[in-house]
Amino acid sequence: MSLLPTMAEVLRQITKKPATNLFPAKYLPKSITGFLGKVSEGKAEINPPVITPENYRGKITYDRDACIGCKICMRVCPANAIEFIKETKTVRIYVTQCIFCSQCNDACPVQCLHMSSDFMLADEDRYSENLIVE
Amino acid sequence: MTSENKSKKAPYTIPIGPTHPALKEPILFTFRINGEVVEEVDFAPGKAHRGIEWMGMRRNPVQIVHLTDRICGICGVSHTFAFARAIEQIVGIDVPDRAHYIRTILAEFERIQSHLLWAGVAAHELGFDTLFNLAWRVREESMDLIELLTGNRVNYAIVQVGGVRRDIEEEKFARIKEGLRYYESLIDKLLKLFLHDKTINMRCRDCGLLTYDAALKLCTVGPTTRASGVRADVRLDSPYAAYGELNFDYVMPDLYTGETRGDVYDRIVVRLLEVAQSVDLIRQCMKQMPEGETLWETKMPKLLAACKKAEGEAVGRVEAPRGECLHYVRMNKSDSPYMWKVKASTYSNQLSWLEMLKGEQIADIPIIVASIDPCMSCTDRVAVVRDGKPDIYSKEYLHRLSVEKTRRLMND
Q1: How confident is the model over A59-75, as a mean pLDDT?
Q2: Fewer beta carbons within 10 Å, N or C terminal of chain B?
Q3: Given CB atoms, is A10 within the 8 Å cutoff of chain B?
Q4: Mutate which of A50, A76, A98 to disrupt the B interface (most B C-beta within 10 Å)?
Q5: Given pLDDT bands bounded at 50, 70 and 90, which one contains residue A114?
Q6: How many Cβ atoms sit within 10 Å of the Cβ of residue B391?
Q7: Which chain B residues have a beta carbon less than 8 Å from that of A72?
C-alpha cells in the first residue's frame, strides 16, 4: 500500500508526447475560414487528419455503369439507405442514413460498391450533393 | 411519494436522475436518505428506450446483425455474436472453425477495451481523474487493434450469420502480438496503480457489499457475480465458439487478494485480472487457429433464402464484458423474425443496486452505481406510455393479463 503510486507515472508522462490526436490548428484561430485560406496560400500549417487503417469503412462510392440493378444491396442494407431509381435502373445512396457496415459491398455481385476512406462528412444540409451518392 | 416523505424532517427523499452528472446514462434513482446514509433505494429504468427490437422485427437477419452492433456502444461484438448464434441454431448453420476462433479473438479484445474503459470510469467516479486518463490512454491500444481487424473502432460489423466477414491475415499477427505484449507488460502496473493506492482502498474496500447469497438470489451475472464469489461465466458454463478448446478458469477476486468480500474493490480486481486472462486467451487462439473458410455462405441471396425457410426458436448466450448477454429469436418462415428479445447483462445486474446501496453514504453512490458497469441504453427494452404519460405495468396487472389470455385461448 502506498499513498501515491500514480505519481511516478504522472512525472514520466511530462517528458512524453501527448497521447491524444492533434487538432488541425495548434491554437484556435480567430476565424476558421481565414485559417483555411492561409493554409491554402501556404502561410499556415495544418495538422493532417488521423490516418485511417486499411479496409476502413468511410463514405460509400458507387460505380453506376457497372451496376446491374439487381437490388440485392437494398435487401441487406440495415438502415434502408438505398433507394432504387426506376428510370435508370440504378440506385441512390443517402450517406446520412448509411451506417457504414459495408454489407452492400459484400453482397454486390458485380462489385460496383466500395467504401472509401473519406470520413469528414459533416454538412448542414442532409441532402447536399456530397451526401447523396448515385 | 407519500405525504410523510414530503415533510422536512429526516428521512429525506432525494431523486437523482433521469439525467445527472453522476450517472453516465439516463436512469431515475429515488433515495430515502437519513443524514448522509442511504436508507432505501428505488430506481426507474426505461429512460433510454429506442425501440431496436421493433426495428429488428421489420428487417431480415442479415440486416439485424448490423443493427445489433448499435445496441451497445461498448459490447459491439457480444450482441451481434449472441444474435448470430441464435439464428445459426434455428437455421442449422455449421460455422467454420476459423470463424469461431476469430469471433473469440474479437470478443476478448472487446473485453480488454471494455474493462479498461470501466476502470477509467471507476477512477473518474472516485474523483481520481489522473488514473481515468491513464486507463483510457492504455485502452487506446486495444481500440487500434480492433480497428485494424474490423475496419472501425466502435461499430465493428464483423460478425455475420454463419461466420465472420473478415479474416485475420498472417501479416496482422505480428501487430496483434505487439499489442498483447504491451498489455502483458502493463498489467502489473495497472494492478499496482489501482489496487495498491491508499485512496482507492479507502473508498472501495467494504463499500457496496453484495454477499454471495444475494448475488445468487438476484441472478447477477458477469464480473459483478464473480466478485461476490459465485463461480459463473457463460464461457465456461456452456462453452461456445472456441472457448471449449481453450484453457482458462473463472477469475475470482481471491486469486489476488486471498479473500472474497464482494465489495467494489473486488469488482476492480476481477475486471483487471480478466484483462490479463483475455490477453492469454487471444494468445491461445492465435496458436490454435485452424486454416479454412470464415463464412458458411458467401452469397447473400442464398443466406437470406436459408433464413427465410427456417422455422423455430433459439437462444443465443454470450459472455459479454459485463456478463451474460442473451438473445431470443423466433423465426416463422418469413424474412424477418417473428420475435426478437434482447436481454443485456445490466438487466440482470441492476437489481443488485438495491442491496449494495443500502446503508452506504451519498458520496459513494456514483462508484457503487458504476461498479456493476451499467449500460442503460442496452437494457431499456420497454417504455410504457398510456394517454401520453409514462406508466408502470405492475406484477398483478401482468398476471391478470396473462390469466385473461389463457381464458381467451381456452374459449376459442
Answers
A1: 92
A2: C
A3: yes
A4: A76
A5: very high
A6: 11
A7: 300-301
Q: Can you tell me which residue has the cell 450517406?
A: A95
What pLDDT score does B7 carry? 58
CB B312 within 8 A of CB B328: no
Rounded Cα–Cα distance for residues B69 and B102 (Å): 17
Q: Is the pLDDT of residue B4 over 70?
A: no
Determine the Cα–Cα distance for residues B211 and B215; give it in Å rounded to an integer: 6
**pLDDT tens, position by position, B376-393:** 888 888 888 888 888 888
**What residue spans of B126-217 are helical by DSSP H?**
129-150, 173-195, 198-204, 212-217
With CB atoms and an 8 Å threshold, state whether B197 touches A5.
Answer: yes
Name the residue among B63, B155, B197 with its Cβ closest to that of A76. B63
Q: How close A115 comes to chain B (CA, Å)?
A: 11
Residue ranges of domains in chain B, CATH in brackets: 52-348 (1.10.645.10)
Q: Hey, are the CB atoms on A57 and B193 less than 8 Å from each other?
A: no
Strand partners, B42: B30
Chain B interface test: which of A6, A14, A60 (most B C-beta within 10 Å): A6
Report ipTM for this prediction. 0.88
Which tens digit of pLDDT belongs to each residue from B14-56? 998 888 887 888 999 999 999 899 999 999 888 888 889 999 9
CATH topology of domain A60-133: Alpha-Beta Plaits (3.30.70)
Please indicate whether, in this complex, the C-beta atoms of A1 and B201 are within 8 angstroms of each other: yes
Say whether pTM exceeds 0.90: yes
Task: Give chain B's mean pLDDT.
Answer: 91
Which grid cell is B145? Answer: 487493434
Contacts of A55 in chain B (CB under 8 A): 151, 166
Per-domain residue ranges for chain A?
A: 6-41, 60-133
Percentage of the residues of chain B whose pLDDT score is greater than 70:
98
**Contact present, A115 and A56 (Cβ < 8 Å):** yes
